[in-house]
Amino acid sequence: KEKHKILHQLLQNSTSPVDL
Amino acid sequence: SNGDLPPTMPMAELDHLAQIISKSHLETCQYLREELQQMSWQSFLQDEVDSYQNKPQEVMWQLCAVKITEAIQYVVEFAKRIDGFMDLCQNDQIVLLKAGSLEVVLLRMCRVFDSQNNTVFFDGKFAGPEVFKALGCDDLIMAVFDFAKSMCLLHLSEDELALFSAFILLSADRSWLQEKLQVEKLQQKTQLALQHVLQKNQREDGVLNKVLRVTALRSLCSRHTEKLCAFRAVYPDIVRTHFPPLYKELFSA
Predict the structure, then answer these.
(1) Could you report the predicted ipTM of this complex, rounded to two decimals?
(2) Rg of chain A (C-alpha set)
(3) What's the angle, vertex CA B103, arms to CA B68 and CA B30, rounded to 5?
(4) Which of A13, B24, B95, B139 is the most exposed, fewest CB within 10 Å of its CB?
């Protein structure tokens, strides 16, 4: 999980570049 | 082969799936076609091209890594909105994105590519291959431009591109998948929806061509990884300290 921290975060996040 | 596909899927379900994926694609495509058309006359001037060409290799690499990472964030969002993707186990979500996100960025490139001028939208304007000279990867850049040009020749509609992108992202033959069967089912459904849309658009003869492009996509992505490895061997600190964390997670691990 540590190895793909950012990907995990992006997958969990409800906000996205689309909403920003 | 279509031998393994489920025999039928109700037409309404295919339409529904196509609509959802098409909507997800449009919501996450980074640039609308209308926006791009308005900017299509904005090519880089010669002194701007010179300025890109005179950048140190590592600065240009960093700039491109940032741009690729931005595009990939939109692809991650696209994946999240594909029906069934978030129901896959987290390992498989990561495996599919690690293997497929750059492939989708390359597919999407045909939307931001001007075939007539052989330019691509990059850093605010349309850039020819010469803009990327400082990267020291002329062969890869040429191959990427050729791929974009060949994709443009297919004149895919947004819904066709959306379904093809989802089909690529849901490739069930990626290494390290834990629930391969589930991915396979999703990919098969997407393939059926793609065939359905192509038939509706009276373009069924193009399916084979598009599927053949999978090989070209994979080869471009592995060439990108090779170039990154070579670059990192010379500039390990630049990659470690200046490249976007997401880019490193995807390509440098």
Answers:
(1) 0.85
(2) 9
(3) 50
(4) B139
Report the C-alpha gap between B116 and B149 in whole angstroms. Answer: 9
**Which residue ranges in chain B fall short of pLDDT 50?**
1-3
Cβ contact A6–B249 (<8 Å): yes
Q: Answer whether A17 sits within 8 Å of B94, measured CB to CB.
A: no
Give the B-side interface with A, CB within 8 Å.
Answer: 27-28, 30, 70, 73-74, 76-77, 80, 86, 90, 93-94, 97-98, 245-246, 249-250, 253
CB contacts, 8 Å: A2 with chain B: none
Residue A12 to chain B, least CA–CA distance (Å): 9
Convert the pLDDT of each residue in B37-46 to its tens digit: 888 779 999 9
The residue of B85, B246, B250, B252 whose CB has the most chain A CBs within 10 angstroms, and thus the best one to mutate to test that interface, is: B246
Give chain B positions within 8 Å (CB) of A9.
none
What is the β-pairing status of strands B119-122 and B113-114? antiparallel
Query: How close B182 gets to chain A, by Cα (Å)?
Result: 19
Q: Residue A20 pLDDT > 70, yes or no?
A: no
Count of beta carbons in the 10 Å neighbourhood of residue A15: 9
Structure confidence at residue A2 (pLDDT): 73
